[in-house]
Amino acid sequence: MTIARKVKVRINRSKRYVFARADFADIAGYDQVGRVLKKLVDAGDLLRIGYGLYTKARKNRITGNLMPASPSGADGVILEAIEKLGIDYKFDEFSQRSIDGDSLQIPSFISNCYQ
């Protein structure tokens, strides 16, 4: 099995949506994995969301543009990436109350307060 095939199979089988280049270090070297990930981005299978960070992609049914495949949307991808990087965070008061079910008002976006 080729390196590209191994990487693609791992991505397709994963329940996660955010991947770092280091997730594939056991498959091949740094540069080889980078080339494979770039080809997957060019093919529309992945979106590059940061230096060495990628997310699964899908086409938007309305616009035809690529978007994160996560059911939680961009907010879910951001939170998964932050957790993957080990960054401490907490939600603002209004977002946290909505998540906890203490408020019926839904914030228009999730804002994070970094510590």
UniProtKB/TrEMBL annotation:
Q: Name one Pfam family in it.
A: DUF6088
- Domain of life of the organism in this record? Bacteria
UniProt-recorded name of the protein: DUF6088 family protein
Which organism is this entry from? Colwellia maritima
